[in-house]
What does this fold into?
Amino acid sequence: MNLFSSLDDDDNQGVAGRINAKQRLLSKKWEIDAFADFQFVQKEFKTIERLFTIEFDRDWNLTNPLGNQSLLVAGANFNLPGKGSAKYQLEKLDFSESFSGTRHVVDGLFRFKKFNGSKFRKHFKK
It folds into this structure.
């Protein structure tokens, strides 16, 4: 890309966007919140700052992803005040030319009478 010439200016522009949503589903003894986050990055988009964590490529086992990228993260938070919380999250990552993958994350922290701070976290990849 040449910043000093107008030739081939079509490759100098790319689009990226992000949409977030969160909704309380239940607010009685249990509090349940549903959430969704969708992110799209066109392959021509060049960012100045990092969009994802440093471990993102390693977490998804990416070597050389090509094409437009879309990432959907959706799930639910379950909270039982005074006892703990749990979260289920589905992540769907696609690169239009080279990769498609799904990951499930279960995370939680509960306190019981004799157990304090039982924490679990599990990833399932497909």
About this structure: The mean pLDDT is 85. The longest strand covers residues 16-27.
